[in-house]
Amino acid sequence: MTTSITLGPLFFHWSADQMVDFYARIADEAEVDTVYLGEVVCSKRIALFEKRYDEMRDRLKRGGKKVVFSTLAEVAVNLDRKHVKSICDRTEEEIEANDTSALTHLKGRPFRIGQLFNCYNVGALDYLVKLGATHVALPVEMRSAGIAALAKRASEHGIGVEAQVFGRAPLALSVRCYSARARERHKDNCLFVCEEEPDGLDLHALNNDRFLTINGIQTLSRHYLSLADEVAELQAMGVTHLRLSPHTGDMVKVAHAFRELADGRMAPAEAQAQLAEAQPEALFSNGFFHGVPGSQRVGMLA
Amino acid sequence: MPETSSEQKLRPELLCPAGTPAALRTAVDAGADAVYCGLARRSNVRNFPGLNFMPDEYAEGVAYAHERGAKVLMTTNTFPPGEDMKDWTETIDIAAEAGADAAIIADIGVAAYAAEKHPDLRLHLSVQAGAASAEAIQFFTQNFNVKRVVLPRILTIKEIKALKAEIDCELETFIFGNVGMMAEGRCSLTSYVTGVSTNMDGMCSPPEHVRFEENADGSMNSILGDVTIDCFSADEKAGYPTICKGRYWNAAHEEPYYAFDEPNTLNIANMLPDLIEAGVTALKIEGRQRSRAYVREVVAAYREAVDNILAGREPNLGDLAALTEGRRQTKGAYATKAWR
Questions:
Q1: Confidence band (pLDDT; 50, 70, 90) for B313?
Q2: How far apart are alpha carbons B199 and B154 in whole angstroms?
Q3: Is the whole model's pTM more than 0.90, yes or no?
Q4: pLDDT tens, position by position, B50-101
Q5: If phi over 0 gives left and psi between -120 and 50 gives alpha, with beta otherwise, what is residue A208?
Q6: Closest partner residue to B250 among A143, A202, A206, by Cβ?
């Protein structure tokens, strides 16, 4: 079976116009099969681009892409709940659930499980498949043995299984907005300051290591995950979909590299060189897959 | 039955931590209505060396507590990876066999196992499941007959009260102890730095990856993996390196600062009446990693405070303030949205 390349939901705060332009280029040029739309990090941002979702969706569909809407990952206050419901009310597209509240809205309908949902094991997967799960994206911190076990079980269920192979790794969620806190503000008066950092705000440790990346209530890895060297292994395990997480670099080039890799037409080292060109300032890591600190570089990246 | 609900409102359960069998006995003797503890394995999120229970110790702890009218809950709140689920399913079996009053679960696979194999075992939803909305809670009550949810420490009391009106299960909230800044069950920071996963291995900042290094000026670096989490001057007490309590800097804030949260201790003693009024069934004290002496002191002080509130007397809050060991206190999310 051909491995699919997907573009995951955008974690960062880009303006509506930036998003529309970005997805138009993806629609026309990127070798991706599926694109996930929908805000998964912050419910406050949604009002700024919600009205353009259909335009982005239609543009992507015209470009031959499958469009899936992803739900908010941390759901607490009424605004969060309202947004999850409004995404789940879309009946024309598949919905990817990033928390259990979405499943209450999606009862009786097929759904996808997002990478922020926390589906870690075959027991959870079996149960979710009974409820209607048709596809699962795995938590980014999973090690190869766990990925292999879930891919095997997903294949037995006849459902797709997806692993992130490119982009900063989503590491944590909080109720507090750290982009606002860096400016002595809090979430309610954030003034959408996260828009100033389209790939997130780099956080440095006292020993001057660039360490983490702040994106509103989300914390990501400073390193960009790259599983270019592990694609063949992921395919052999039965992973059917490779997820790219959107960044400001040349995502068309990133998608091309993974398409060629997945089809065996490009060597991992060449693909990695293209990723470095596509996102020039990026440092890469692949530790999670190998069961070592996620920030570490193993094998080809070392 | 209105009597039952008003009784619940009047008599919340004081739920206390036990990292060891001795701490369990101490907490029960100090007046805990219930105690929570876990087995010495990955199936609970305080899987630190030297802590937690062997299966026979657990059964003895349940017997000790039951003889004295207290309950014991089994903490089973991490996420088994792949098909490696035995530590977790065994923990559920052991809880059921020992007569635990409930198992605290977070993972859907573990919940499904417990609900199927031990339908009589009461299930509570751990804070690690991150269920803070009525819809998320309904998912667990409807699918697994979960009877109580431990709320993430992110809601104001007003929001808790509104939530209570929308759901049909009990609520449990933290009232005292360490406040993790990241949403529980959604944090891979330790995994990124050390390779040990909080969700899969049950440890945040595992001690084998922690070290302290003294600088020439007498200041002390606290280090996790290869990252300096904080630096303490010679006259400060060097804190344990927890990533979300560290000092960092960035382009928008070049002076090192607590980018996520100050190392505070949650203490909402003076909001207890409001929490009880909001319909919270169980008041939870954090600290399974703490000493017996600490457990005795905190449990006894809170026992007295809760009893005073229930009797309409003023609780002595000064004693509770002293329990925070000189650390700054916070009311966390409970008081104001500005905390966010």
A1: confident
A2: 19
A3: yes
A4: 999 999 999 999 999 999 999 999 999 999 999 999 999 999 999 999 999 9
A5: left
A6: A202
Write out the two tokens for B149. 């949810």
Q: Do A201 and B251 touch (CB under 8 A)?
A: yes
pLDDT digits (tens, 9 = 90+) for A30-88: 999 999 999 999 999 999 999 999 999 999 999 999 999 999 999 999 999 999 999 99
Residue in A1, A13, A7 with CA at minimum distance from that of residue A196: A13
Listed by number, the residues of chain A in 191-210 with a beta carbon closer than 8 Å to a beta carbon of chain B are 201-207, 209
Smallest CA–CA distance from B134 into chain A, residue: A101
Contact list, B256 vs chain A (CB under 8 Å): 206
Under the banding of pLDDT at 50, 70 and 90, the label for residue B6 is very low
Tell me which residue of A59, A84, A60 sits closest to A70, measured CA to CA.
Answer: A84
SS3 A250: coil
Q: Other CB atoms closer than 10 Å to residue B262's CB: what's the count?
A: 13
CB contact under 8 Å between A169 and B108, yes or no, is no
CB-based contact (8 Å) between A133 and chain B? no
DSSP readout, B86-126? Answer: HHHHHHHHHHHHHT-SEEEE--HHHHHHHHHH-TTS-EEE-
CB atoms within 10 A of CB A62: 11
Backbone angles phi, psi at B175, to 5 degrees: -120, -20
pLDDT at A249 exceeding the cut of 90: yes
